[in-house]
From TrEMBL:
One of its GO terms (molecular function) is calcium-dependent cysteine-type endopeptidase activity. Keywords: Calcium, Hydrolase, Metal-binding, Protease, Thiol protease. It holds the Pfam family Calpain_III. The keyword Protease applies. Residues 406-415 have a biased composition (Gly residues). Residues 686-721 form the EF-hand domain. Calcium-regulated non-lysosomal thiol-protease. GO terms for biological process: proteolysis. Residues 45-341 form the Calpain catalytic domain. The keyword Protease applies. This is Calpain-12. The active site is at residues 105, 259, 283. Residues 393-423, 464-489 are annotated as: Disordered.
Length: 785
């Protein structure tokens, strides 16, 4: 079992790796093509068993069964109340999407923005669907869900009340792509009612897989017009909200407070020596428009040439209108921008491409949910991601009449100013996005989004170079898989698309976790930036950072809060990112057979040995001639350990006795599963003393327990180096309700690991000390003990 670095390392491989980008995954395993073919063969219309047309699909509270709003609701197919239903009309436009009786204007405003870009629309709403030829009552839509695309199948039974659709409808009454898309989104999250209330960026992200940003507006926000203009030029989706503390209400100027609007265009017009900046907005209601300056009937338009009026102005009550920038800033509180990924933009994006990394994670109570305060004792346990920025942004020309300042700290356009203009320090623009996964689905249970956010710390060069990964990325070799999350890289549609990307570990692996001084190292880092901490699904921030090494630490605000999350990193220039993790390995010394002479431990056990083994075996032990035939069962082992460990555990407030189940586990690890020979007990005793010393190091208050947040460090001290996934599973298994791990559970944990690594070491070949196992093989090995 000799190897060069003194470790036994387990490398996990995937039998199916290297397949490249995957098609959208069928939601709930429902294949649109298979369902449609089956319906055509049988001649029946599809009825969705996973989202039945009934009260539960409507909601749970205001739309719940027996609620006033749910009374009189019928579920009908479009053919039952429309003479010639169309899935999507050729002259479809952004003004077609109109809101119904559900408070989901955020969703509808985002859907209306989709119509500006047919390529985006047809990614979400696959073409070729129809109510005519081959109609079977089944439709499908593709939505992005936390790092993957899913294909959601629905039947076309829609909620109707008093002969009209209850929720979203089209201005063209015979068009049904929008109501069916709304139903697919409702199915994805559990009901229509869970869509009540939200932020436009949620839908933007789910429609595109992009990264959403929220800009909180002030009375004077320099650079805003340039930001919006460049965002729209790069095919980003843009929305605006007029926030309200008393729900939705209409103002005298025709705006609806507490309502989401799409921003669909910008234009600059000259009136004499004055330049006027205009924004085009749309109310998803399809009516109720701005009546102030530059509204449809405003005389301001008469001062413009006729060709400009014809190009810009449509005098129609369609919910769309123009506003001057200053009026916009007076009435709206936020701008929401969704920057699109290379996968969606395609090979020839209108603007610069993006480089993207995506990581999946989870905050687990007692393991890595350390809270948001860097000064807290548990903050260092939060998930950590190392970001290396390699190149500063390219320089872009400034808008000739924009102020120097911008809404993101001097960054006024969709590409930051570059390395040398006016002696500026070269910086990199990075979009960081933290998403809580699957929380909207929990609304029916009375739960809501946690307060979450992230910190960005700068890693000094001396730490960054000696304790981190090689910053040069390399494609994963065939069959290999990074356990540090799903990692994707792309730039303008090129690079890697859905393939695993790993960072070659340097000689000192991945930094802080494997260090006994991890808390001190993290507390010594300077904070370079941070997001707001708020109770929203998506929390994002656009950072301007110098080239170098950084640590991104996402966290829930409160210690112990649990949730799944997705962290994504967008940058316009090349970067590398990796989750700080450890490989699965064990020090060889940990697995060695440790022998203790009976003379060292014999005197304290003489009465027990005489009683249970008789004078013969006792005499042979004195003379060094060990009785090979004498064996201990689980009950005898438990009694022996209670006597042997009593002096060692006497200085704690907890006796630390080993239970019968743990003794059975020790028989599995050191004996034949049923019993333990006395000479094998000598090996077990050596390990127990070593484990006890490691445990006592972290039992600072001599209570006989350790904090579960420190289990990882205790296992490291015992010679076991585990990745986050495995450590999380062990922590959840061996902690108690008070987030403590007692000595018995620690023994059970390290005994299991010893058994696993001993079993794996049988597969060692040569002197490298690396064992390659598939995920299936690893699962079998990790559970057999």
């Amino acid at each position: 079992m000799a190897c060069r670095d003194g470790k036994v390392t387990i490398q996990l491989v995937d039998e199916d790796a290297g397949t490249g980008a995957r098609d959208p995954e069928p939601f709930r395993g429902q294949s649109y093509e298979a369902i449609r073919a089956a319906c055509l063969d049988s001649g029946i219309l599809f009825r969705d068993p996973y989202f039945p047309a009934g009260p539960d699909a409507l909601g749970y509270d205001r739309l719940g069964p027996n609620s006033e709003k749910a009374k009189g609701v019928e579920w009908k197919r479009p053919r039952e109340f429309c003479t010639e239903p169309q899935f999507i009309c050729e002259d479809m436009s952004r003004t077609d999407v109109c809101q119904g009786r559900l408070g989901n204007c955020w969703f509808l405003a985002a859907a209306a923005s989709l119509t500006l870009y047919p390529r985006l629309l047809y990614r979400v709403v696959p073409p070729g669907q129809s109510f005519q030829d081959g109609y079977t009552g089944v439709f499908h839509f593709q939505l992005w869900q936390f790092g993957r695309w899913v294909d959601v199948v629905v039947d076309d039974r829609l909620p109707v009340r008093e002969g009209k659709l209850m929720f979203v409808h089209s201005e063209q009454r015979d068009e049904f792509w929008a109501p069916l898309l709304e139903k697919a989104y409702a199915k994805l999250h559990g009901s229509y009612e869970v869509m009540r209330g939200g932020h436009m960026n949620e839908a933007f992200v789910d429609f595109t897989g992009g990264v959403g940003e929220v800009l909180y507006l002030r009375g004077n926000t320099p650079g805003l017009f340039s930001v919006v203009r460049h965002a729209l030029a790069k095919e980003s989706l843009v929305g605006a909200t007029a926030l309200s503390d008393r729900g939705e209400y209409r103002t005298e100027e025709g705006l609806v407070k507490g309502h989401a609007y799409s921003v669909t265009g910008t234009h600059k017009v000259s009136l004499g020596f004055t330049k006027v900046r205009l924004l085009r907005l749309r109310n998803p209601w399809g009516r109720v428009e701005w009546t102030g300056p530059w509204s449809d009937r405003c005389p301001c338009w008469d001062a413009l040439p006729l060709e400009w009026q014809e190009a810009l102005l449509v005098r129609k009550e369609d919910g769309e209108f123009w506003m001057e920038l200053q009026d916009f800033l007076q009435h709206f509180n936020t701008i929401q921008i969704c920057s699109l990924s290379p996968e969606v933009l395609g090979p020839n994006p209108a603007g610069a491409g993006w480089h993207i990394h995506t990581f999946q994670g989870r905050w687990v109570r007692g393991f890595n949910s350390g809270g948001s305060q860097p000064s807290a004792e548990t903050f260092w346990t939060n998930p950590q991601f190392r970001l290396t920025l390699l190149e500063p942004d390219e320089e872009e020309e400034e808008d000739d009449d924009e102020d120097e300042g911008g809404p993101w700290g001097g960054w006024g356009a969709a590409g930051a100013r570059g390395p040398a203009r006016g002696g500026r320090t070269p910086k990199c623009t990075v979009l960081l996005s933290l998403i809580q996964r699957n929380q909207r689905c929990l609304r029916a249970k009375g739960l809501t989004y946690l307060t979450v956010g992230f910190h960005v710390f700068q890693i000094p060069e001396e730490v960054g170079l000696t304790r981190g990964p090689d910053p040069t990325p390399r494609p994963a070799p065939a069959g290999s898989v990074s356990l540090r999350g799903e990692v994707q890289e792309g730039a303008g549609g090129g690079g890697y698309s859905g393939a695993a990307l790993v960072t070659a570990p340097g000689p000192q692996l991945l930094g802080l976790w494997d260090s006994p001084h991890s808390r001190e190292l993290l507390s010594g880092l300077l904070r370079a930036d941070r997001s707001v901490f708020c109770a929203r699904r998506d929390v994002s921030r656009r950072c301007r950072l110098r080239p170098g090494h950084y640590l991104v630490v996402p966290s829930a605000s409160r210690v112990g809060d649990e949730a799944d999350f997705t962290l994504r990193i967008f940058s316009e220039r090349s970067h590398t990112a990796v989750e700080i993790d450890d490989v699965i390995s064990a020090d060889l010394q940990t697995l060695m057979l440790l022998f203790w002479k009976w003379s060292q431990i014999f005197p304290a056990w003489t009465p027990w040995l005489c009683l249970h083994l008789g004078p013969g075996p006792l005499l042979s032990l004195h003379t060094g001639c060990q009785p090979q035939e004498e064996e201990l069962n689980a009950y005898q082992l438990q009694t022996l350990l209670s006597i042997a460990l009593q002096p060692a555990r006497g200085n704690t407030r907890n006796s630390g006795e080993i239970g019968l189940r743990t003794c059975e586990q020790l028989l599995q690890c050191f004996g034949n599963g049923q019993s333990l020979a006395l000479h094998h007990f000598q090996q077990l005793w050596g390990h127990l003393l070593m484990w006890q010393a490691r445990f006592d190091k972290f039992d600072e208050d001599t209570s006989g327990t350790m904090n579960s947040y420190e289990l990882r460090l205790a296992l490291n001290a015992a010679g076991f180096h585990l990745n986050n996934q495995l450590t999380q599973a062990l922590t959840s298994r061996y902690r108690d309700s008070r987030l403590r791990v007692d000595f018995e559970h620690f023994v059970s944990c390290v005994a299991q690991l010893t058994c696993i690594f001993r079993h794996c070491s049988q597969h060692l070949h040569g002197g490298e000390g690396v064992i390659c196992l598939t995920h299936r093989q690893w699962t079998e090995v990790a559970t057999f003990s």
